[in-house]
Structure formats: structure tokens, C-alpha cells
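worker-3 :: picked Cytochrome p450
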Amino acid sequence: MYVKRSRSYWSRKRIPYLKPTSVFENVENVFNPKRGLMMDIKICYDAFRRRKKKFGGIYFFTEPVFMPIDPDLIKSILSTDFSHFLGHGFTFNEKYDPLAAHLFNLEGEKWRKMRTKLTPTFTSGKMKYMFKTLLDCGIPMIGYVNDLCEKREPVDIKEILACYTTDIIGSCAFGLECNSFKDPNAEFRRNGREALTIRFSDLLMRFLTFWAPSLPKYLPIKYLRSDIEKFFINAVKNILDYRTTKIMLNVMTSFSYLSNYRKRLE
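worker-3 :: C-alpha cells ->
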């Protein structure tokens, strides 16, 4: 009765919708994914486009999801009416899983504060400054691909782009040289690979979260393993400590230089 009631949400609102195709509604079996969530969404989007609808409704398990189709409607949601669409639909336990409290998961006032802090990082001037780093990270990638071509070995483009992305994030965000192409099992690359590897427990958690969206708020559920979480938290702490120490040394050196210069003038 609960599932049947949930499946009638869009019809009760008189919104065009796609009929659920399985017990998982409009998405594929999460325990045996073959297409991926993005492809499922694209299939639903194309279906509404063929029916010439400006918007429509789909279901993720028992959760109704609104899908805008018309470009003007999407523009309104993302710009003029954005203050009414701050929710992202993801829940987490911030105290137990602090790394999940990022810009794509936060909502409301916490999201605003985080966005205010991150916005200055991605100004046009700083993006241009990062471009040199992107080019520098591409040099080892070009060399790696050339070596594979000379050896007549197959090219795993997914792994190559993952290493390139890891080097960029390490350089721009952490100020580190990851050297993913020289050492594919480097600590930063290995933990990044593990963080994006989907395990059965991840699928089970995703299933439970869709059925009960508020569940992660009250249970000690993590999106990352404890060892991976510890690595990234320690990496940020170590970098902050290093930069703070470096700044203090520079300040002390400057004061020492000015003091000596003043003595010479006297």
C-alpha cells in the first residue's frame, strides 16, 4: 500500500510522468548496475522530449523526482528562482561523516556559507593562474601515452584521465606533486581510486538511502572507508600546518631583515 501510494504522487499532482518499470521505479537495479544513474536519467529525459513535455516526474524507488526539460525552466531554477531550490536530495551524518559535508551535499544556510568561502577560489583570474598547472600536468601524460604507442600497448583512457585529474587536483588544491603516471600506486592516487570504487556495501547504502532518505542523519553511515577518510583529513591538516609554519618563518625572516636594515641605517 505504501509503494502504491508513493507511485501515485505525480498522477495526484496532475504532472506528466513515466510509469515505473520495476520495483526500483525508473532506475535500474542498484545491485546489478549496467548503465549507471546518469544514463537512466538521460533515458527519462529523452522520453519526455519525445512527448514534447516541458517538465515531468519520475521515481527513484518510492521518492518522487521532478525533472525540468524546457531550457527556460531550467534557467529559472538555476538563476532567478534558485533561492527556492537549495536542496540537493542527499542526506548524511555530518558529525560521523565530515567529508560528506561538501558543496554538493549541503543545503540551506550551511550551503550558502560554504559557497561564499569557495567562490573566491574560482574567479576568472585564479582560473587563468591554474591553467599553467593544467599544462604542466599534461606533460607527463603525453610522455606516458607516447611510451604506450611506441611499445604497441593498449591505452586505458579511463585510467589515463584519472591519473591526469589526480595530478591536477593534487597540484591545484593541495600543492602536491602526485606523479600518478610515474607511480600508479602512489598514495594519493591509490586512495583516490579506492574512494571512487563502488562496493556492495555502497550499493546497499544507496538502496537504503533512496527508500528512507532521512536514514543517514540518524545512523553512523559513512560514504568513505575510515582509512580513506583519515588519509584525506590528515593530508589537509599536514598541508595547513606546513603552510602556517612557512608563513611564520617568512614573517620572522622579514622582521629580522628589517631590524638589521634599521641598525645599519642608525
